[in-house]
Design a protein that fits this description.
Layout lengths: L6 H9 L2 H19 L5 H30 L4 H29 L2 H12 L1 H7 L30 H30 L4 H25 L3 H4 L2 H21 L4 H30 L4 H30 L3 H17 L28 H10 L6 E4 L4 E4 L2 H9 L8
Antiparallel strand pairs: 1-2
Helix pairs in contact: 1-2, 1-3, 1-12, 2-3, 2-5, 2-6, 3-4, 3-12, 4-8, 4-11, 7-8, 7-10, 7-11, 7-12, 7-13, 8-11, 10-11, 10-13, 12-13
Length: 408
């Protein structure tokens, strides 16, 4: 639910502010945790934990991604990598911490304590500050035609392909961690050693988010982020096939979780950056929310589909074939956005009201994107194979999107 509801907080951030939405979301997610401790049966938890806590998680997660994209420009990928690495760290820490709580106190007390911990997100939200130019306007000044959730992004073929690719990626990602432990146990390893592989995957995920966030801001990668993103998905898919066909020993599985976690972390860190490269910061509220929705659909479909495949075939290895195929297909689908015959509209149509047929070479494109910060009159995104010449007035408008960004 936290991902499926992504468009809602994205739209609310345009009406209010990231700070307010995170603080309200913290109260909601805390209420979800606390109420889950007092339900009479698990069916009630589908609502208290799944819906209430899921809504609160969405209202704290999405604005956190948005505000990083607003403040940072020159090193946006690294900033996103640092920000989203907290998710991997939290997964690594909270699982054993919850186990500790359940061993020391009652279930109700443990959930109450977790609800109290979630309230600390209010403090985090209180520290958020939106760039002055991006503060939401007073409600009275907003026109009735001002859409807070911009569905016009779906007229961009590259964005549609990116959303479908994100769905396929998460569809393949989620079964990998769920089915790994029983697969390793089936091959003779103890439950403790098998579960430890998930912790190794979490650490590798954190490293991947930080490392690939750093290298994505380097000048020779700047115009090729999309290809780094595609390569990460492709390698993750191949790793799943390795796990299904070659891996038989604990060392093989250890190699798998390191590689898979490293590259899975990279495409998680690059998703917000790719969206800004693709559509611009002005459409980031809508594009990130809608992308998270598609990712949520993938997480919703992936585990049940993998479980059904396991029940039909009786083999855990087949679930990794499914995961690998989904991720490799995702790497193919994202490239369809660059195919002229597949798209009736250029990717740059959403960035500018005009389009010019002249397009420079790849070398010229890279030079253009580097020179934007120096005040040139060209907007380029060679990672998506498109170039658009702009008037001086429109170039200035583009740079205003990032005038309050932090150049670190």
């Amino acid at each position: 639910m936290g991902l499926l509801l992504g468009p809602l907080p994205g739209a609310l951030c345009k009406i209010f502010s990231c700070r307010k939405i995170v603080m309200v979301g913290a109260l909601i997610v805390a209420a979800g945790w606390i109420s889950s401790g007092y339900v009479p049966s698990i069916w009630y938890m589908y609502f208290t934990y799944g819906v209430i806590a899921g809504l609160g998680k969405s209202m704290t997660n999405t604005p956190s991604i948005i505000i990083v994209g607003q403040w940072f420009d020159k090193r946006r990928a690294l900033a996103n990598g640092i920000a989203v690495s907290g998710a991997g760290l939290g997964t690594f820490i909270m699982a054993p911490f919850l186990q500790f709580l359940f061993g020391r106190c009652s279930y109700e007390s443990a959930m109450l304590l977790m609800g109290g911990i979630m309230l600390n997100l209010c403090v985090c939200g209180a520290l958020y500050r939106s760039p002055p130019a991006l503060e939401p306007p007073p409600r009275s000044e907003e026109g009735s035609k001002n859409s807070h959730l911009d569905f016009s992004v779906f007229t961009n073929c590259a964005f549609v392909c990116f959303c479908i690719s994100s769905m396929l990626t998460t569809m393949g990602h989620s079964p990998s961690s769920i089915m790994l432990v029983p697969l390793v146990q089936e091959n003779g390893e103890s439950p403790t050693r098998s579960a430890f592989l998930i912790s190794i995957m979490g650490v590798s995920d954190i490293v991947g988010r930080l490392f690939f966030g750093f290298i994505s801001d380097l000048s020779f990668i700047l115009g090729r982020r999309k290809y780094l993103y595609i390569a990460s998905i492709l390698i993750s898919g191949v790793a799943n096939f390795f796990c299904a066909t070659v891996a038989t020993t604990y060392e093989h599985y250890l190699l798998y979780v390191i590689v898979f976690g490293l590259f899975a972390g990279s495409y998680n860190a690059l998703t917000p950056v790719i969206l800004v490269d693709m559509l611009g910061i002005s459409k980031f509220h809508s594009s990130i929310g809608l992308t998270l929705f598609f990712q949520g659909v993938g997480f919703l479909i992936g585990p049940p589909a993998a479980g059904l495949i396991k029940d039909i075939t009786g083999s855990y290895e087949t679930t990794f074939y499914f995961s690998g195929a989904s991720m490799i297909l995702a790497a193919v689908v994202i490239n369809l956005g660059d195919c002229p015959s597949a798209c009736s509209r250029d990717i740059t149509d959403t960035l500018s009201p005009t389009a010019v047929a002249d397009r420079p070479s790849s070398h010229e494109a890279v030079q253009e994107i580097i020179s934007i910060e120096q005040g040139t009159s060209g907007l380029v995104n060679p990672a998506f194979g498109h170039f658009e010449s702009m008037s001086s007035e429109h170039s200035n408008r583009y740079r205003e999107d990032s005038v309050y960004s932090t150049h670190l």
